[in-house]
Structures are given as structure tokens and as C-alpha cells.
Amino acid sequence: MVVSKTNTEVSKILLLNDNKVILVSGNSFSVYDYISDSLVAHTTTIPENESNSSCIKIQFPEAIIIPETSETNLDSAKSEDKPAENLNNDTEQAPKKKQKISGAKSKEPKSSAKSDLSLFRIRDLSVSGVDVESNSQYVALITENKQLYIYETKNWTIVNHTENSKRCNSVRFDPSSKFVLVADKFGDAYKYSILKKPAELKPELLLGHVSILTSMEFATIYYPRITKATETNGKAEDSVAHKEYNERTIILTGDRDEKVRSSMYPNSYNIHSYCLGHTQFVTAINVPKLENSTKTLVITGAGDGTAKLWDISSKLSERNNCENYNDSSVLLQSINLSQIGSSFIDSSISEIGILSIKSSKELVSIIVEGVPAIFLFKLEVDQSGNNSKLILLETFSTDSIKDNTLNDKVSNIPADIEFDSQNRLLVSYSVNSKVSPTILLEAFEFDSETSKLVSCKSNIKFSNFIPPQVETPVEPKSIFEWGRKSFDRNN
Fold this sequence. Notes:
Largest sheet: 5 strands, mixed
Helix content: under 10%
Structural class: mainly beta
CATH class of the domain at 12-61 and 123-226 and 244-404: Mainly Beta
Number of strands: 33
Shape: globular
CATH architecture of the domain at 12-61 and 123-226 and 244-404: 7 Propeller
Radius of gyration: 24 Å
Distance between the termini: 41 Å
């Protein structure tokens, strides 16, 4: 009997360069060229009849590639002899559990953590900038079982690997691309030097919250450096015509207890400011890249269903020469997505939480958990005051492309979004036991004349992308499960 199988969803999309993205599916990821519609590198075995000779096999450590059960589709490998170097297929099937004999203690060992496939799922990943000296670029990823892996993207080889003491929720490269940071469920953020040998790869504590860290991003703030002053009414005033700026890097960390904190980097014991206003756990932080601006704006999302726009620009100049201060963050706007998208929200959804926020130039895209829609905004920046704002351009229904004759289980609910360098929006759709999409991945471009999203399937294709398949779709996991989970320090 042929058992039907279901594709796994692409849970993360991350832009690698102008035409390549990293697509995460469960415990594997693929590097895909969406312009040529071809696979560049992958972590799972492609069936022989569909193999791509130009595709590089990423050699994962054995810890990540584990025996596939009905969840991970290794049926085709059961009857074949595999070479020892093929980490995906050479492991043995786990033995069946023995029956317990009445009156005797079972000596069966406890199930290994490796048998729980969910522990090997990729939790988050980050792409570094290109190192000018070595012309190298790196990818870092963290898994549910506390592993940190760092890859060099030229040959897709592992340059470093370590195990964190706690499970991590977020990973980011710093602006220098020489260090990688992880944020864990203990509330701490650690820094690793990516070029040290694994034996010397020791974590350096950077900062800590008294709550679980959920998200992390870097931003730049600009301090006026006064080069000339004029006299007005006997007082020295800054001459705008001769004002220059120094840059400083800050790190933004969101936590389960509604706070977003901005700290100086790398001396993160110096707190720049707090963004206080959410009433639920923080789920997303986005820092728009503003052209020709000394403003620093931040967009945050949370389990309260709101997206908030903040101005965290510094109000101090280098004249103050002060490190220990608490600069103010200004809440510019709060947007209730449950009100804007009320017509798209199913009556069975009792709680609304922001799933992802991405920006590119003046465009900002937001998706909400369980809602078949993309919320598209335009960011208007007020260079001199506090009137910057997000203007709603469109609430795009992702279900508008599906065949209405299909059953209710079919729905295109966004799982993740990512802008590419050409301002095109890449979207992946959720796949689980309760919902199945008509398409796994899709791309849109912004029509400036109509201010709408339009499909660009003629230019961007994912027809040759082959995700892992499972016999039984996974149960959907809500962000509210981990957002309100008790703080278990022993895990």
C-alpha cells in the first residue's frame, strides 16, 4: 500500500545574497537560487532521479542528521546500502520497544533525546555580512537541542560548532561579522568569536534579562559631533550646517515580559533605553534601514496583536561624553492588527499575535499567526520631529489565490516572510495537521502605481525546491505556547 506523504512547511526564509535564499524545513535547510530556479546546497538527500549535479551536499555533523522515522521520510533508504560518509542515510532504524514482563523490572533504557525529532529542528539562523579581508560570508544556526553551528558559504563547510548551556531562541551576527550572539531562555545573551577553534569557543556573557529572551536585533544610533558653534543671545548653539555624526551600535533584546531593551554594544551593561508599551510577550523586532537619515526607528510586535513604531534616536551629543545614561525611546504609533484584519480572522482564533515583521526601504510587511493575510505598510519618516508613521497600503488576502471549491482545510496562511534586495516579498505558507496550502512558496512585487502586491511568479520560481516529506503532518504550535510557558530553568 502506498502511503501518501505531505510536504513540510518552510518555517524560515532568510536572504543570503541578491538571488539566493536559505529555506528552513524542520531539521534541514536548503540554499536556493530563485532566479534560476535551482538548488545550490542542501542538507537532505535528493532522490536519485531528481538529483542535481551542481548541488553541494552540506556535511552536517551526525548530531543533526538522525534516523528518519515516519516523520522524516527515509523509506526509500531502508533497502539500500549507503556509503559511510552519507550522514543522511547510513544510520540504523531505532529498535522496537520491548514488552514489559509482569513481576520484573524493565531494564530498557530511557529513550534517548535523539529519538525526539523535534529537538533537532532549526530554531533560528542568521547570515553575516561579507568579510572584506577574507571575502567570506557565514551562516549561523541554532537548534532546539542547544546546538550552535557556523558555516562558511563558499564551500558550505562547518567552521565552528558548540553546545549552549540553555536552549536558545535567537541568533545574530554582530555588525563586524566576527562574533555571533545567541539569546537563551534563561534570559542571557552570549557572544562567541566565530574564528576560534571549537575547543576554544567559549561564551562571553553580554547581557541578561530577568525574563526569557525571545528576539534580538542590532541597530545604529547617531550622535551629533559639533564641529563649530555660533553665538546667539550669549549662548553657544549647534550650527546645523557644520554638524557631523558619530555612529554607535546598540543591541535590541525583546523578552517574554513585554519589554524591549536597547543596550550599547559591546559594552552592553550600558543601557540606552527601554521600549515599554506591549501587554504580552515580544515576538518580533525589526529595524528599518533608512536612507540619508540619522533617525533610528524600530518596529516591534507582540502577543498582544499590536505592532508598535518607536523612535530610539539619541537626544545627546558627543559633547556630553557620557556612557552611563538612560536615553528616552518615543512611542510614535501603535497598530492593532486584530482590528485591521478582522475580516480575515477566523472565529476559532481567540488570540492574535504578531508572527513576523520585515522591512525593505519604505515598505513594511507584517504577518499574524493563523491569519491568511499580509499587512503591507509604507513607512513615512519625519527627519526633524516625532511624526514618523506607518501607513496601511493593503491588507492582502493570501487565500484569494486558492480554488474556492477546495475543502476548508486548504488555506494559505503565511509562515514566514522576507524581502529580497529588489524589494520583492517572499512568502512561505504553513503546513500542519489542520491546514494545507495550495502552494509552499510564493513571491510578490510591489506595484507603485496601485500600491498593491502582485505576483511575480514569472520571474521568481520555486518549482525545483523539494522539501522533506512526512506521513503525518505535525501538530500546529502556537507562539502563545512558548510565550506563556513557565520559566523552567532546568531545561
